Amino acid sequence: MKMGFNLELSQRQELVMTTELRQAIEILQYNSVELNQFIEEQLLENPTLEKDTIDEKIEKIDWDAVSDDSYHNRYDDVSYSTDYEDYNYEEFVSKNMDLKEFLETQLVFSNLDEKYYDIARYLINSVGVNGYLEYDNEKIHKEFNISDEMINEVILYLQEFEPVGVCARDIKECLLIQLYRKDEDNIIAKKIVNNYLEDLSENNLKKIAEEINQPVHKIQEIVDYIKTLEPKPGRIFNSVNTKYIEPDVIVEKVEEEYRITISNYTAPRLFLSSFYKKIVKDSKTKENEKEYIKKKMQKALFLIKSIEQRRETIYRVVEEIVKKQYDFFEKGALFLKTLNMKDVADAIEVHESTVSRTANGKYLQCSYGLFELKYFFQAGIQTENGGISAESIKLLIKKMINEEDKSHPISDQKITDKLDQFGISCSRRTITKYREAIRIKSSRKRKRF
Fold it and tell me: Does residue 219 sit within a domain?
């Protein structure tokens, strides 16, 4: 067997993922919040990079201006207020009291016997976010050495607290507490809650009416009343973090055309620092210092170009969305068509993954509201006049159900037949799936007596 080494020259093509290319891809898929956080990090890391502090609308970036000294100095005449002592105290929001704190406050001002106080505090700390007690009975016995009867007395005492229905052990007890506090004489309502909660959830009102010997229409009225009670009394204290979404793109109709505006918040304007450009040009600056600054400036310039490329890509994608979903912008969500990312990618001659990254976490504002770009890429069903989106079908289903006779609600099969008359052919199972997706109950559970 002969072994040896030899040299062989060959050519091949392959995509090399450079650091710059990787950064450009990341910048494209960032949402506006992530992009601004990334830019702030780059501003701290790269002294040659600067950001506009004035919000201005620029249709096209001027690359010569970015490198020109006058670009940096164009706001020198703008004055800024530095009076930090002019506070607006309405901007300061006090901390909201949570459910347990609210119950503790009521306990402090109550007349509960001191020997039960520690037990009451323990039970309050066992209340879940929805207001139900979630305590360990055996643990209380060991901790406080008390009987079930005494535990029950303390629980009944806490059930007198606000909000009404709090400290219940299950939904039945929660609803009964509210019925006793609000309407002590409603015997039938209490009987239904005590014995027929499952039938109530299934809308088996005829069965309830027969078993308690009452007209079905009267049972319907009582059930409607029961449904006004709060099954989760603690949820009014659940903290909700309000998230404000800044639209990345604004689409508005001007005369007969739709104008697309990319927000400066989602594509901030950056430029090279004139201070460091002067240092590079200064003959007194050492060569190694110049080399360092030039590398930083090249990195900054690539970032500026990446952000501008991101801006242009978003614009082109939205422009194509407006073309293909023109009926939506003219008439609303009922006219949303089927659309996939490949259609848009082919139209603007980019890869499908580029469209996917562009649509990720970006929001469009138009006359019909605020929508994530992904909303416009819809699956659906092909019809004689083209494709109709799943969203449009859901809206049609909702419209039909809203207009139905509540005493004779339409079934999924009837909805299927009606849609077929409009040239929209889909199975009953598909209709059921869409109905459940918009959280509408079946016809049997929607029936009113």
Answer: yes
- pLDDT block averages, 10 residues each, the chain of length 449: 65 63 82 86 89 50 47 38 44 66 92 88 93 88 85 93 94 94 83 92 92 92 92 83 79 91 78 86 85 89 89 93 92 88 92 90 91 89 74 89 90 90 85 90 88
Q: For residue 235, give the nearest of 310, 179, 294, 174 by alpha carbon.
A: 174
Token digits of residue 291: 């080399």
Coil, strand or helix at 34 = helix
Taking the C-alpha atoms of residue 311 and residue 67, their distance in angstroms, rounded to an integer, is 19
Whether 82 is covered by a domain: the verdict is no
Which of 378, 401, 435 terminates a domain? The answer is 378
Residue type, 90: E
Say what the alpha-carbon torsion angle 380, 383, 386, 389 is, to the nearest 10 degrees: -20
Q: How many domains does the chain have?
A: 3
Tokens found for residue 427: 């199975």
**354 lies in some domain:** yes
Rounded CA Rg of the chain: 33
Q: Strand 249-254: give its sheet, edge to edge.
A: 257-262, 249-254, 363-366, 369-372
Question: Does the predicted model carry a pTM greater than 0.85?
Answer: no
DSSP letters of 83-123?
-TT---GGG--PPPP-HHHHHHHHHHTS---GGGHHHHHHH
What's CA 80's distance to the chain center, in Å?
A: 36
